[in-house]
Design brief:
Shape: globular
Number of strands: 7
Bound molecules: adenosine monophosphate, zinc ion, fe (iii) ion
Largest sheet: 7 strands, mixed
Helix content: 40-55%
Distance between the termini: 27 Å
Strand order of the largest sheet: 1-2-3-4-5-6-7
Strand content: 5-15%
């Protein structure tokens, strides 16, 4: 019997290509024992995912992935088991959604200035929800034959400091911790490799973050090699952090993301969910 859980997935509420109910159904079909929906800066899909979980007898965990400020690289903070009705959480996330809505037309404008035939309306049309993300721009650039794949879209245009990059407001990591905890949630660091730190630097930073409420780290992840998983496991164990994992499923909006594929050592087991729940 499969007792694996996937604790990182996206729906059309952010930049995934399937609605929350469909992501839940696919998780059930993939034989998973549990799923967390973790849309970027948005919990608008959580209620629908929870309902679909009941309909399909699948354990669904409320989640969110908050983009935080971090000079050296990309810092994404996962939150689980918060109260989806918490008004402060909703307000703080709405602020990020507004910052995103202000950024997106600027990306379209930069692409136009580079001579690319693209309108923001086209991007919005494929997003399938109110929230547009860079993968939607990447998708259009591919459909128009301007780039071959997602990597090229980010390498040439959309990645940090590339030709059509536009920054947006982010909370500091410490603020993201506070927002999640204040809503009763548990704080986990997503895909630690994107911080671009050495093991020593990461360990020092995590020690500080543990004091501020960090409780877990996403050790099992498709972009992590077995060797990386080994190193992150040792670091997590040394700090008593819960070792979580997920596929970062985006449907067709990210190359090679498959529900239930959390990298070379597989997804975490359902015991991890119980540990997170008990925090
Ligand atoms: P946004 O939140 O709109 O700034 O978009 C961030 C999302 O873009 C991430 O969650 C990834 O799904 C995707 N992304 C960021 N950088 C890359 C990259 N270099 N290659 C492919 N996808 C990326
Ligand atoms: Zn994404
Ligand atoms: Fe992420
Ligand atoms: Fe993600």
């Amino acid at each position: 019997m499969n007792n694996r859980v996937d604790l990182h997935s996206h729906s059309t509420v952010s930049d995934g290509s399937f609605p929350p109910e469909t992501v839940v159904r696919k998780a059930k079909e993939a034989g998973l024992a549990g799923l967390a929906l973790t849309d970027h800066d948005n919990i608008g899909g959580v209620e629908a995912a929870l309902r679909a979980g009941e309909a399909h007898s699948l354990l669904v965990i409320p989640g969110v992935e908050i983009s935080a400020e971090f000079d050296r690289g990309t810092c994404h903070i996962l939150g689980y088991f918060f109260d989806p009705l918490d008004e402060t959480l909703q307000k703080k996330l709405a602020y990020l959604q507004q910052a995103r809505a202000e950024r997106n037309p600027k990306i379209a404008k930069k692409l136009q200035d580079l001579g690319i035939d693209i309108t923001y309306d086209e991007v919005r049309a494929i997003a399938g929800s109110d929230q547009v993300g860079r993968p939607h721009f990447a998708r259009i650039l591919m459909d128009k034959g301007i780039v071959r794949d997602f990597n090229e879209a980010f390498d040439r245009f959309l990645g940090k400091d590339k030709a059509a990059y536009v920054d947006k407001f982010r909370y500091r990591p410490e603020e993201a911790f506070e927002i999640i905890q204040a809503a009763g949630g548990v704080v986990v660091l997503a895909h630690p490799y994107t911080l671009n730190l050495s093991d020593e630097e990461l360990t020092l930073l995590l020690r500080k973050w543990v004091d501020l409420g960090l409780r877990g780290m996403e050790v099992f992840y498709p972009d992590h090699t077995e060797e990386m998983i080994g190193r992150y496991s040792r670091i997590a164990d040394s700090l008593n952090l819960i070792k979580t994992g997920g596929s970062d499923f985006h449907g067709n909006n990210k190359e090679g993301s498959v529900l239930g594929d959390c990298g070379p050592l597989g997804c975490p087991t359902i015991e991890v969910v119980e540990r997170l729940r008990q925090v």
